[in-house]
Structure formats: structure tokens, C-alpha cells
Amino acid sequence: MTILHSTITCPLCGHRKTETMPTDACRFFYDCDGCHAVLKPKAGECCVFCSYGDMPCPPVQMARDAGETSSCRARREAVSAEAACSRNGSYRV
């Protein structure tokens, strides 16, 4: 089951806030209500929820539930490649 809420903790001031995570996109920027810093994902992470939240983003949760290790970035790239191939008529299921 995918959890849609994550509590983000600012690494600069420690402010915590529970946010609803989007299921169809990654959230790359997050404005901290405590110190007004703009948070970005850590290197190798796909979004602020995976970097600073107590729950990873829904695409990462779904990948883990399916036994995969891919991030939402890898998932997005795979979907984009699939879409490009299907437009060209070369994608096979």
C-alpha cells in the first residue's frame, strides 16, 4: 500500500511539516516554513521526500513493493523511452 503523506524535516533548522506527496510527479524543490530555505534533493535522490521525508515518494514505494530498486527518476526515464519507442512503432510488449 502506498503512503501519500510524509513529514519533511529541514536539515538546516529542524522544522517539521507533514505534506501530501504527488503521485504523478517528483517534488524537486521545497520551501521550509521555518527558515525559508529552498531544499533540493540530496545527490542520488529523486525528490525532497526521499531526501528529507520520513517516507519516500510514491514511485519509490511502489518500486520497493514490486521488489525493484529503481528510483522515480529511473522510472520516469523508462516511461519516456517506452513512449518514444511506441511513437516510432518499435516498442514491443
Give a summary of the structure in a few sentences:
The chain is of the alpha+beta class and 93 residues long. It has one domain. It contains three helices and four strands, in the order ββββααα.
How are the strands of the largest sheet arranged?
1-2
Main sheet record: 2 strands, antiparallel
Order of helices and strands: EEEEHHH
Strand portion = 15-25%
User: Which geometry do the CA atoms define?
Assistant: elongated
End-to-end C-alpha gap = 26 Å
Structural class: alpha+beta
- Give the rounded overall mean pLDDT: 80
Helix content: 25-40%
Which blocks of ≥5 consecutive residues have pLDDT under 50?
74-93
Count of extended strands: 4
- Gyration radius (Cα, Å) is 15 Å
- Please indicate the count of domains: 1
Helix count? 3
Features:
alpha+beta, two-stranded antiparallel sheet, 3 helices, 32% helix
How would you describe this structure to a colleague?
The protein has 93 residues and is of the alpha+beta class. It has one domain. 32% of the residues lie in helices and 15% in strands. It has 3 helices and 4 strands; from the N terminus they run ββββααα. The chain has helices spanning 48-52, 58-65, 72-88, and strands at residues 5-9, 16-20, 30-31, 38-39. Strands 1-2 form a two-stranded antiparallel ribbon. Strands 3-4 form a two-stranded antiparallel sheet. The protein is elongated and about 35 Å long. It starts with a strand and ends in a 5-residue tail after the last helix.
